[in-house]
Amino acid sequence: MATLVSLQSRLPLIDCQYYYRNRTVDGYRKKEYKAAVKIQSWFRGCRVRAYIRYLNKMMTVIQKWWRGYLGRKHYRQMVKTAYLTMKMNFYNEMAVRIQKRWRGFKIRKYCFNYYYLKEYLRAISDTNQAIREALEEFAEMRGREKKKADLEKEEKRKQNQARKTHYLLSTKQIPGIYNSPFRDPDPMEFEIRKVRAFQMPSAAHQIQQTDYEDLSTWLACTSKRSFPRSDILPPINRKQCQGPFRDIAEVLQQRYKPLQPTLRVATSINSEKDAREELRREEWNNRVHDNVFLPFSSFSKNEKYVPMVQTSTKYNGISYAQKQFQEEEPTKWMSNKGKIIYPVLERVLGKS
Amino acid sequence: MSQRQVLQVFEQYQKARTQFVQMVAELATRPQNIETLQNAGVMSLLRPLLLDVVPTIQQTAALALGRLANYNDDLAEAVVKGDILPQLVYSLAEQNRFYKKAAAFVLRAVGKHSPQLAQAIVDCGALDTLVVCLEDFDPGVKEASAWALGYIARHNGELSQAVVDAGAVPLLVLCIQEPEIALKRIAASALSDISKHSPELAQTVVDAGAIAHLAQMILNLDAKLKRQVLSALSQIAKHSVDLAEMVVEAEIFPVVLTCLKDKDEYVKKNASTLIREIAKHTPELSQLIVNAGGVAAVIDCIGSCKGNIRLPGIMMLGYVAAHSENLAMAVIISKGVPQLAICLSEESEDHIKAAAAWALGQIGRHTPEHARAVAVTNALPILLSLYMSQDSSEDLQIKSKKAIKNILQKCTYLPALEPFLYDAPPNILKHVVGQFSKVLPHDSKARRLFVTSGGLKKVQEIKAEPGSLLQEYINNINNCYPEEIVRYYSPGYSETLLQRVDSYQPLV
């Protein structure tokens, strides 16, 4: 029963408590509600954050692995490239070395060989030296020859002079002008003594120069050793020598009989030509003018071929045997003097 | 009158004619009589005597006419106008050798004066008759007709072509082989006159086989013959490379070099002309000449002559050096440059000096070695003075300027360049300073020398527009030296120093 009483004592309070509880609870409802919301949101937030953290961690792991993979791949690529570049550089280096050597060699050997050029220039200067010496020698030789020739000419001239003035030679009585008694004799004196005299062309020489045309001065006997001729005739009244001598006149006549050449010998070899020349000159003298008589220009132009009798056919023309001596075209020579021509009528009446 | 008296009249007349024509011929040998003869109307009197009956009178009349026509061209024209030529040509074919000689003499005397007169001779058909005379037995006739043909062919190409068309060339080549020296001379001179005008004519002469005979005659002793032969060969060789090669193939080297030592001046001149004509075509021909020692011979020849005789030799050196630098080096080691410098300073004629200047320029323009060889002989100041002097001809000035420029652009021999700093005009100064600016940065001894010789001072005094090439060179030079030295040598430095003295406060 006590509990009942306690419960009944609490009964009036229930209303108020109920009302009070509900009212206070409403008061706290908002707060509690907000607190609950806060707690829940916080918790939800925590949960989500934990999830996101978890996701992030997973993502990091994936990305870490992926980036590692990429990096390693890149690294491998870089290593390869670096290796290739190193190799290429090496090759280039070596190629440069080879080319350097080769180009130097080529230029020095084929394009510009310095030592060859030096050799060449030395050879040129040697040749020059040799040529200069040779030319000097040559010039000297020429000079000597010329001097010798000059000396010889001088010698000859002196000799010639000495020969021409041979009469100045000194005799025992009369000393010549080159042999003065007060001095040493002049060298010219010795020269004159040495040479032989210069003779004027002799008579025999002169006979050869006579005109060959004039045969009447020749002797029948033409030997040089015979019968000298002089201008002085022998005296007329010479007493005949005693002895069996022939008459002098007869003998002289026989001896100095002139040459009596035949006509053939006496005419000169050019006589025919000379005669022709003379005739031509005479004719030229007598001519009135020099114009040559020219024939009619068309006289020999239109010569027709006259075949032989044996080879003439009716197609190749009339041979001489068949030639007519009458005029073939009589109308050619007829003029139409006196005939009046009416050209219009001619055309009208037709060509008649 | 008796026949004898009649004949005596004719004889007197003939004697008078003979005397007249002989006296006229004799008087015509002296120049002072010819004026008087011309005024007395000798032409109209001589003309009928050419047609005289007596052959001696004809010949003497022709001889007199020839001598008169030889004297001057008025008389030669009078001969042409007087219609004497056709008669001469006609009788040239017929008469004896004395008349032929005299008639050929007249034709030669008329033809030598001018191309118109020579054309008149060709027009009256003389060429065929002259060529026929070339076949005559008498060497005097051949000589006279070859001489006439040579004089006609001398004037111009058309007349030469006419002579060649008349068939003269093979006969002239035959004449060259004759034993008479005078005939050889004249034939060689005629061939030379024919071949000088054009390559085709020279080719015609070569085709007739002239080169071999001409080359053989170089060894002959007669000086005048050698002159003509060398002249003929050089006229042939000058036209083209092929002709020059044919001349060389006739083995003229080294025989031609002996002609360079001949006593006769004109033989030397013609020989150096021949070598020049061969050397100028290609480097290979020049090389051939150098290898045969020709350069040394030519240099000696230049040294032994004076005046115009030297000119072909100088030009030959220039042509050889122009082809390549190896050949120029060959000229240098043959001691050519001192000789050329002597020519440049000694000669009085401008054209020879111009040739020497050109040759030096060709030698020195290749490399610094060559330029140094030229500069060492002190030729550059001479060239500068020739360029600057007012009485040099324009050609000489142009050539010396070009030579100076070419040599300076390669010259690194500073002692020779220094005098140029002082006297040169601005356009040359630019090149000189440029050369200094190229050399000084690399050579310390040269820098020292430059300062001590006063060159740096002079460079500072040069006024140049800023930005021009000259200023750039000057800057380059200044950069080679420390600043104090440059300032020391710059003009007006002493004034600035004194100003500093004036404005200085002494330390008490």
Written account of the structure:
Chain A: InterPro entries: ASPM, IQ_motif_EF-hand-BS, P-loop_NTPase. Chain A: It comes from Monodelphis domestica. Chain A: GO terms for molecular function: calmodulin binding. Chain A: Pfam families: IQ (PF00612). Chain A: Its main location: cytoplasm. The complex is a heterodimer of chains A (352) and B (508). The N and C termini of chain A lie far apart (197 Å). Chain A has a domain of 103 residues. The mean pLDDT of chain A is 83. Chain A has 9 helices and no strands. Chain A is an all-alpha fold and 352 residues long. Chain A is elongated. Chain B is mainly alpha-helical and 508 residues long. Among the domains of chain B are: 186 residues, Leucine-rich Repeat Variant (Alpha Horseshoe); 70 residues. Helix content of chain B is 77%, strand content 0%. In chain B, helix 24 packs antiparallel against helix 25 and helix 27 packs across helix 28. Chains A and B meet through helix 3 and helix 8 of A and helix 21 and helix 23 of B.
Q: Which spans of chain B of ≥5 residues are poorly predicted at pLDDT below 50? A: none
What is the fourth-level CATH superfamily of one domain in chain B?
Answer: Leucine-rich Repeat Variant
Global outline of chain B: elongated
Number of helices of chain A: 9
Range of helix content of chain A:
55-70%
Q: What structural class do you assign from the helix and strand content of chain B?
A: mainly alpha
List the uncertain runs of chain A: none
The sequence of SSEs of chain A as H and E is HHHHHHHHH
Q: Please give the oligomerization state of what you see.
A: heterodimer
